[in-house]
Amino acid sequence: MLLVAYWVWNKAGKRIILSVLIAGGAGYIGSTVASACLDAGITPVILDNLVRGRAEFTDGRNFYEGDISDGALIDRIFEEHPDIFTVVHCAALIVVPESVADPIGYYEANVTKSLAFIRHLHRNGRDRLIFSSSGSIYQAENGSPVTEDSPLAPQSPYARTKAVCEEMFADIAAAGKMRVLSLRYFNPVGSDPLLRTGLQLKRPSHALGKLIQAHQDGTPFPVTGVNYPTRDGTGIRDYVHVWDLAAAHIAAIDRFDSILSESKRSIAINLGTGSGTTVRELCAAFNNVVSTPLATVDTDPRPGDVAGGYTTSDRAEKLLGWTPKLSLEEGIRSALDWIPVRDKILKD
After folding, report:
1. Considering the entire predicted model, what is its pTM?
2. In what order do the strands lie in the sheet with 62-65?
3. Residue 158 bears catalytic tag
4. pLDDT for 224-271, tens place per residue?
5. Choosing from 64, 158, 239, 310, which is the catalytic residue?
6. Distance (Å, rounded) from C-alpha 6 to C-alpha 185?
7. Closest to 131 (Cα-Cα) out of 253, 285, 219, 306
8. Which of 234, 207, 237 has its CA nearest to residue 221?
């Protein structure tokens, strides 16, 4: 983890610890970023409406319960924390099937409210924004790597809200109203190594969650599709440890002004492993961690399944000085370690 002293001296000669506002800071990603901020000497100020975030993840932290579109609340936060120098925007609904069923709700929560949030930030003179975007906006279907210049083809209302927000923020930045660094996450796994926070759900719907569920239930894990154009015929995804993602945010906070300027006011950076992991490789990594190996069974692809893809992280290394440090096995192990802790910390 990058360690930098984030403080300044005021006119009275008193040291002031600088703060970062984390919208959505009670969720999985946001709470992990908040932990990384604390470890790096930055004070996180959390804003979350708790629709998906957990109040338990805000214990002992500066927390405001409310919505990013609430202008009066945003004004109060900056009045009470004038030392906030950067904003991290993680507030969003993120469940793909839910977005298909309720696109109106997703566009309102993710796009309309983000526009209101930007207006409130601009009114309060804050122009540094780090936006949680997604690798799901790419046309990644044939198992090939993508870069920041690859074609975009979001396949769900959720993914399209991320693409729309990026374009909206870029337009606002070009007009001189904001500087925006969009971090495009691929597939976060694991938890805070100190187990302060992690996934809120008991039964996550992503592949690792399904693996854990199958292991707990004692049932074989279905490998859906074995004839894709990948190195072993199974689908490929880019699983990046959530703590590595948090480290990328600290680097983005630290290097923000060197990356973005008056002439370059917005940019996107992919955050992934650079190689990707096939389903068979994910299962093998899982079995390297657990004591009782998990059996698998090959099945047909599900409707709508694609080979998937992964990202190169050249731009992240160049601009952020960031490369992932933690292995997939470490992500799996921390996800398993988090389960009993989650049951103690979270009330449901």
Report:
1. 0.93
2. 62-65, 43-48, 19-23, 84-89, 128-134, 179-185, 266-271
3. yes
4. 999 999 999 999 999 999 999 999 999 999 999 999 988 899 999 999
5. 158
6. 25
7. 253
8. 207
